[in-house]
Amino acid sequence: MPQRPTARPRPVRRALLLLAFLAPPAAAQGVGDGVLLPARTLAAAVEYDLERWDEYWEGTLLRRNENIGTLTTRRARLWTGYGLTDRVTLVASLPYVRTDASDGVLRGMSGFQDLNVAVKLRVLQAGLGGRATLRGLVVAGAGAPTTDYTPDFLPMSIGLGSRTAQARGTLRVEGRNGWFADGSAGHTWRSTVHLDRPAYYTDGQLVLSDEVAMPDVFDYVVSAGWRGRGLAVPVSLVGQRTLGGGDIRRQDMPFVSNRMDFTRVAARVAYALPVFSALSVSGGAARTVAGRNVGRATTLTGGVAYARRF
Amino acid sequence: MRAASERARRWVGLAALALLSCDRHVEPTEVLPPLQAPSVDAAAGAWRMFVLDAPDQVAVAAPAAATSDAFRAEVAAVKAAQAAMTDAQRANVAHWSGGGVLRWNQVMRELVARYNLPPVPRPDGSYPVPDAENPFADPQFPFANPPYAARAYAYVSVAQYEALKAAWHWKFRYGRPSPAKVDAGVTTLVPPGDLPAYPSEDAVLAGVTAEVLKLLFPGSVEEITRHAATQREAALLSGRATASDVTAGLALGRSVAALVIARARADGMGTAGGTPALWQGMASAAVARGEVAWVSQESPARPPMLPNFGNTRAWTFTAAELAATSPGPPPSTSSERMREDLAEVKRVAAHLTREQQAIAMKWNDGAGTYTPPGHWNDIAAEHVRDARLSEVRAARVFALLNMAMHDAAVGCWSVKFQYYNPRPSQLDPTIKTMIGLPNFPAYPSGHSTFSAAAAAVLGHFFPASATELAAMADEAGISRLYGAIHYRSDVEGGKLHGRRIGDHVVTLARADGGG
């Protein structure tokens, strides 16, 4: 049976909620966890990612490329969440992305990337023997590029240029002593993208069109952690599997519809300032441990978040 | 709360609708309507030959008469095959009905894109050379870079053109009608037309194209053979050829291919890769002239792309005639003009608009693509399709276009390696490129040369589009400045050179009997 909704958040509890919210698994943009904001609470955060790789998977072959050297991607992300009710939270994020290669002659790119929005809806809340709470969420999301960047210059391109729709389900268990665990899986549908050229070769075929069909994407996030005393510490395993698409051919450039798969581990710490608990800071790191047609990336993340109830 | 979830549901519904309302499938190939040429071009057997001495150089024996029992049995076999046709066979007939020359041109562009990948360096920093005798190795053979591709498109197009002119000669000599013309019981799955059926033009194309393509892309023999087999099958099932039409056509096509292949084996391509001594000598000569010599900016440094390709045999020029089309030297690397050119590249790159970026991307045609000559074949294919040209006239357009682009490649490479001029990013390492940096000297721009030559030839065949084609060629040229890999003087030199070569081929076209 659903429990009575949790008590009105006291400041510390609100800070903890915010912390959980601010410490989402890497690259899940606040949709891959089971955290909801209390009603009429607005959270806003600025995050900065520094991502680097000097090896990438050309298909399944892990290699270096002296004409790229180290590829660095910097992302400054603005994101916000709002608790419409205790059961419904809206989230939105928009990153500004900049890429640079340390070697070779290819030019880096920069610009605002995709706006992603999602609604997280609690559909289940149950006590587990008084020691823990189980929560179930369904999430619907959508994304679209905010600028006319080209996705046809990978790995320098700042994004893939596709409009997306996402559906996912999430389960979260929260223990009374501060432990929590999330499991979330999603499916993303992607629109075709248009290139600036009239033909391209991918997946063993010449396509005489400027339009590229984008395979769907499945992703999962499993995380666990602890929170209390102004801290939240989740560790996560994040996976993406593209449901189709071709491999990068030997010595070819990556292509927008490639089968981009990865498995990534991530850890994060968020800390609510003791004097002003509405404000919190966080930092984290992630490492791609397996992949296909993606870089073997290491990511460092830092952020500041603020929340208040209206 | 209810209102909120209601709102959420509506929002999700809207998002899903927005996505599903757009088609997520992409048609990979050009849809070609069934070819119904207004003219059969009955005189094509007398048009000028380029490799063959005469249209009857390859003999085709007289067929059985249309009234003979043998022919009636063949027609009955066509009817029986049509009665047992599967959906896949029907789709295959529809596919080839768009025109064999156009379909093979697509196949060729696909093969070029598949093989247009540079070899991967060895761990010691050296580069292996693709080996025609071992096409499946790493690196695969060939590396279908722009000069290789220009030559490949030309050989296939010329071979098709020669074979079809010969076929037209025999078709109108013997005048045997197609099965659909003599027996109302034969279903016509393609527009029947008045072209005599013996030898089958489809089988001629299948035979000649497959043989030449197998030489150029030995790693894809199986796929090439399959295409050829489906084209021959379509000829029969469509009701326009009998078994003897196909057999005679295949034999004629293969014989013409053998003559063209003999030329290919002796055209100098085998030594186009040059030697380290050759390109070091080129660099030293540039330095001796007081110039900055080009160096590879790839890491590890890669040998220049086919430095001796400029000595490959041209189609429409002697070596001396081709040398006379040269645009002359580039501005000295120490000149004021070069300083201005370099400053312009830097300025354009720093203020590149999205539209300029799109132009650079549109004409990039770099590694992994069908190359600039392939891009112009793509453009030509649209015009050929819209003009509803007979197979032999379509082959003429592609043959003259691709001879011009091959000769443009030979001429351009000759000038590039004569001057050995550095790229902008070599003279100013702060210049970063919007597209892949080609691994050979800058002057003159290959894109500009190819494109000016192609636009001249296509503009001759499709005069209503001449202005538009010339504008496209200019755009292709300037795209290299936008991409920050060429100076304006490279673009202008290439355009001048390409124009001279294209105009020369147009002069030939005016006098080849094809109108």
Automatic annotation (TrEMBL), chain A:
<feature type="signal peptide">
    <location>
        <begin position="1"/>
        <end position="28"/>
    </location>
</feature>
<keyword id="KW-0732">Signal</keyword>
<protein>
    <recommendedName>
        <fullName>MetA-pathway of phenol degradation</fullName>
    </recommendedName>
</protein>
Automatic annotation (TrEMBL), chain B:
<dbReference type="InterPro" id="IPR016119">
    <property type="entry name" value="Br/Cl_peroxidase_C"/>
</dbReference>
<feature type="domain" description="Phosphatidic acid phosphatase type 2/haloperoxidase">
    <location>
        <begin position="398"/>
        <end position="506"/>
    </location>
</feature>
<dbReference type="Pfam" id="PF01569">
    <property type="entry name" value="PAP2"/>
</dbReference>
<dbReference type="InterPro" id="IPR036938">
    <property type="entry name" value="PAP2/HPO_sf"/>
</dbReference>
<dbReference type="InterPro" id="IPR052559">
    <property type="entry name" value="V-haloperoxidase"/>
</dbReference>
<dbReference type="GO" id="GO:0004601">
    <property type="term" value="F:peroxidase activity"/>
</dbReference>
<dbReference type="InterPro" id="IPR000326">
    <property type="entry name" value="PAP2/HPO"/>
</dbReference>
<protein>
    <recommendedName>
        <fullName>Phosphatidic acid phosphatase type 2/haloperoxidase domain-containing protein</fullName>
    </recommendedName>
</protein>
